[in-house]
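Long-time lurker. I teach an intro course on protein structure, and each term I like to show students one example going from raw sequence to a predicted 3D structure in token notation. This year I'd like something fresh instead of my usual example. Would anyone be willing to generate the tokens for the chain below so I can use it in lecture? Attribution to the forum is fine with me.
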Amino acid sequence: MMHSRIDRNEGAQVRHEQTAARFGSVVVVLLAAVACFGQEPRVAGGNWERASAAEVGLDATLIEHLVRDASGGTFSGLHAIVLVKDGKMVLDEYFAGYDSSRVHYTASISKSVASIALGIAMDQGYLDGIDEGILDRSLVELFPEYESVLTADPRKQRILLRHVLSMSAGFEWDESSYPYDDPRNDFVQTRTGDDPIGYVFEKPMVAEPGTEFNYSGGLSTVVSSIVESSTGMPMDEFAEKNLFGPLGITDYEWEHIENGLADAAGGVHMRPRDLAKLGYLFLNRGMWNRERIVSEAWVRESGKEHIVNEGNSPNYGLQWWCGDYHYAGQSSYTFFASGHGGQKVFVFPEFDMVVVLLQQVFDNPMGELNNMAIMTRYVLPSVNPAAVLSPAVEIDDAALAKYAGEYVSGQQRVTITLRDGKLYADAQDTPTLELVPLSANHFYGTVLDLVDVHFLFDVSEDGKVDGFRSSYSFSDEQFSKVPSN
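-- Reply from a regular --
Happy to contribute to a lecture. Here you go:
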């Protein structure tokens, strides 16, 4: 049992994920380009009931290929894949020396864990609930000891709890320009300072609360403080009693920042199969083995879009990411916990499915690219046959020629050319992408042999091409064709 506190600064290696959590960021540069809920999980003594892929309706061949390719090193840095479908564990696979007993650094998945703990504190009456307006309580009300700081700027007086949880408080905050061992990184100041809450609140305002997303581990530290001050227990102890205990989670670690608060921004270490329990708890609207752990209202609020992000980033709920995940011309809504280095806990209500992917790829984009490849090439096609790619079709040069030209979307420009009977997409400072035809107007190109980007061309009845829609992961962007002279 390792539900211990550990206090350490991971330094430059431990990086949270403002940029990396926005999965599509790397590919967009390369390209320039909840309805139903789950069945009760079947667990006994903390162990999941097992099922084969075929028994829960997945394409067994695709799942077998996923395990084969992962074991063969296709996804550098991958440590674990856990897949739960219809309440049963289908995959519990480990790589690179990891096994099911080893706790794994989860990075900012910790933020979602902290959010669950906050919801439980509301349910138990330590704080008002959603119906009592807790999300619209101001920071001045929640932190009267900081009233002088929070009333110095009228905009600070308008910061509500919902803005803290949705990363839209409006504070100036920079957690991406400098590494996590550099004191110029704002989160380093909250992690190492004597008064992390005061540090956050004293930051100048740069936006009206609720209008702009700005990823901040400091705001998650505020959440930790709210749980501790309202319950009288450190967040890790409160979670052990009211969340981990009921779910049968006994092996974990939770770091603390310098002033003693549980690190809600990135301090949780857990076993992959236990992370799947957290995902399934939310898939089942807060129920676990017929016991109410957290209210359905909190699950609903956490997993829905509170801030809509532009471009290729997923949207944000209450310390959970969310949005439509695009794959092979299809899309499915997901909400998920995310941590830098490739850590993910995906919840797909449409498919009664939870997918946990854990890696440690901190200093390059491969962790996120691995996740996209795993989800779009194997997992989602295995549950949605419409996403299985058909064989490439033959299209003659005359038919292909109409797609050639310049296309624009905002400041992005893509040039499509026809060379030697094939279409190619080029954008500034990006590799050339060969477009493979799946039908008369549906093509895809592969980035770094991992990520398939789909192009659906808009063709009018008279055969004129007006533009195309490119999609992958959380990116779904419409390009218009520039008229030729």
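Some talking points for your students: Confidence is low (pLDDT under 50) at residues 1-38. The longest strand covers residues 330-339.
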